[in-house]
Specification:
The complex is a heterodimer of chains A (339) and B (344). With 339 residues, chain A is mainly alpha-helical. Chain A has 14 helices and 2 strands; from the N terminus they run H-H-H-H-H-H-E-E-H-H-H-H-H-H-H-H. Chain A has a single domain, classed as ABC transporter involved in vitamin B12 uptake, BtuC, CATH 1.10.3470. Helices cover 76% and strands 1% of the residues of chain A. The longest helix of chain A has 41 residues. Chain B has one domain. Classes of the chains: A mainly alpha (339), B mainly alpha (344).
Amino acid sequence: MTKWLQQREVVVLALLVALIAVIGVINNSFLEPKSLLSMLNTSLILMLLATGEMFVILTRGIDVSVGAMMGLAAVVLGLALNAGMSLWLAIPLTLLVGLALGAINGVGVAVVRIPPIIMTLGALGVYRGAMLILTGGSWIETIPQSIKTLAGMKVFEVSVFAIATLLIILLTTFLLRRIRQARYFYYVGDNEDGAFMLGIPVRPTQTVAYALSGLFAGTAAVIFVGQIGFVPMQTGYGQELNAIAAGVLGGINLSGGVGTPISALIGALFLTVINSALVFLKVPAFWNNAIAGAILLIVVLIDFRVRVAVEARQRQQRAHVRHETSATIQPLLSPEEAS
Amino acid sequence: MKVLKPLLRWELFLVVLLGVEMMVFGALNRRFLNLENLLYSSSDFAHIMLAALPLTLVIITGGIDISIAAVMGLASIVLGVTWQAGVDVYTALLLALLVGVVAGTLNGLLVANTDINPLVITLGTLFLFSGLATALAGSLGAAGYEGISGLPRVFTQLAHGAVGPVPYTLIFVIILVLIYSVLLHKTRFGRALYLIGANVQAARFSGVPVKSTIVGAYALSSLGGAMAGAMLTAYFTSARSDLGSDALLPTITAVVLGGASILGGSGTIIGAFVAVLILGYLKQGLLALGVTSDVSQVVIGLLLILVVVLRYWAADINQLRRNRRALQGRIEPEGGDLATRHAP
């Protein structure tokens, strides 16, 4: 299973590299480090949101409130900084707010048993409304320079935010592989009843997944405020759909149990490259969404066709094996094994 | 108990809720309970009704269609563009509705012929349709805030005209409620929708034409989106590609509040209709009280969560009561494991 999973990520990565190469051939300036780095910087927020969303989708849920959580966390960060709070206190506060907002979703879904799409849809309205109430509907401007300075810091021309995001995603990937409890996300999403029978704490796992989604949305909010320098009321609007699309494109399965942070990373990069590519290809930017939608559909359809073909072959092989064994009449289990 | 049963239905609860809402707002604000005003202001959320009614059909099958909001914009811009090209406005309207049906058929075919999650498919087509709409508008220079305006009065009158105090749109919606209700509750197609939502395997084995039924449901859903797009175009007197882009969440909220289970197998048209009224008048009532739309967004979100919690708890309590009575041997046990656990 993991082998196949990796293949899907490799396929999308190959598509991405091919896309970049083709655009680079048509317009050389696309391949300049400067434009590649600027694309990387643009995709950071989507990467983080998609990674957070991944935890929820792994447990077979859905979180349509990530954009609203990011917006509300960004508002809190903006207000805290404007109130004179130091940067190193305001950032943990923002992350905590994100975590708390996500945990509310988690409790609603896992403990109260509200269907995920309903819970997060309701939360979307509440969080977005809270954002407007906190600010009175006006943008938060004149945010202190400190966070913009942080966003501007670079190591070898790569921004600190980009390095931090990539480190977070790599660390998450590593932890998901190495920590036993982290595998629970996969078990719960793959077969909830089975996981429950095996004694896996299903409800706490689901709660944690939503809380992590909020935490990543909070992290995205920090990057947003740093990069943009002010907080408009549309912050995060529609980002939930982009985050889901990025994840699905990268190979996260909405039926639960399949996906890695790398999928989220590749998917987010893919969507960002499509958006920037059109500028370089001198295609009017209003084609963005149509192309992104078409590619998303094509990728999931190819995935479906391949999966059907693989399953058919496996079934054929199994039939073949059964035929052979029945011919030689071998007992399936020896008496010791059977007991 | 049997006599009481129909009274305990969800739809009745919704009607009571609507009544309570009207009384509360009426008590707080004398001018709110003005029939003429209430009827007139239904135009503000008529597009939600047009989209929510057929979306109910899709949700009953256990699917979901989030591309309807994009279809609204696409239909609007198709209408505007063809009219601008010199086609008469009614033909343009028909063409826009046809685009809706085609879009829905595409959704339906993809959902019916693959095992890909409908959310993913309609997410893809959401991007595709909204992208096509922006591209169509952009290449013809109608991408701005104005869009394509100057549509003839005969057309805009469809959203602004009224028979006495009753707006055309409300009459149209009520006719649709009747048509969809008959379709859902009195036809083979309607029964098939419920059966597919309850158990698609069983539906397939009992000879229900699963694929064509699903395609039909999605086609109707998109047609509803296209109607809503045309209605918005007439209401705002201009065709824009982004019309209806914020209608998705209210529409889904209405369908779920209306009693359709997101897991499929249950839901009614009349429930969705009453739910739209509750949500629409809640917003207007709060607005009339001086509550800003930001706060009403919070109220609506909380209401959605609360109502669903209430429904689940009601179902749980009902199950407990049944089990307890089964224990005492008054009725046959049904479902729950409480009865078997305590059996001698």
